[in-house]
């Protein structure tokens, strides 16, 4: 297992907040339909403001209808909530866990009203995304700020968010274990002589990727230019930089047993107008482009924290079908889900921020030179098309 290393603050991680005493945790999820009748209303929520007709939504709906109209994501968050509650109880922390979603019940507004009614006023938010991007961080903070305004609780509830945890050992180590197990499965089948590992993450528009994360500095502290000519800046911003760093960590950790395994970062689940550039290569295109010398493939959905619909459909159906069509042995390894190390890591993140009076916060740890990541985001961090007020933001 890779050991945690405490690192000095870097430019992107200089915005830390002092530890405080919180009285509850909000688990912030994406949400998903829980029956056939929910599918189109849910997709309307996800695409609100884009003017997409129901006929086009139905083209996506068949992914959900294939599974009875039920996304696995809500049950997975119920399981994660229960696992977090058990870990909190084991540590003797007095922090009840609430759950709210961006796009389906229980909605953020409902969760905030419940928190307030139960007497809570200072809440620490755990978001079910590990990496920095508009959709993976800022959109959650915007929607939470909107929910505070809509419920009239903006002056009543204080919401802080734990940092992005892409390189926290609680996230990295279960992914190392999963990739190692996948490579061992290939080797046991006799298909691991020349294996390849594809780290799959959600594709996003390249314009959004390039402005992901804070704008003022690279990991080494040097300035990030405002144009696209610079190689690093034009290569996907912090979103891609973070995922490449984690993939490299994982492959370094398994190199003792699989020194010849090669790897690549691939993207999945793109949507939107075809003329808009999104991050590439698509996982299916990347599989088809693998050289004949590759004898086995491990697909790691490193960009996700649970095996929800886009993992179950885009990888377990489409990507594995592409592998079968070219006769390539393949293993799709699990996400971190409710792995005990991941659950413990999330509560470690809570204990970086939450202390009882007179207590000491947990040390911040990171496994790459990019972290520990920031607690509070600059106003220009992960900008969307029309930035809105956010929680856990400067300015």
From TrEMBL:
It is found in: Cytoplasm. Pathway: Porphyrin-containing compound metabolism; protoheme biosynthesis. Its EC number is 4.99.1.9. It catalyses: Fe-coproporphyrin III + 2 H(+) = coproporphyrin III + Fe(2+). It comes from the Bacteria. HAMAP family: Ferrochelatase (MF_00323). This is Coproporphyrin III ferrochelatase. It comes from Demequina lignilytica.
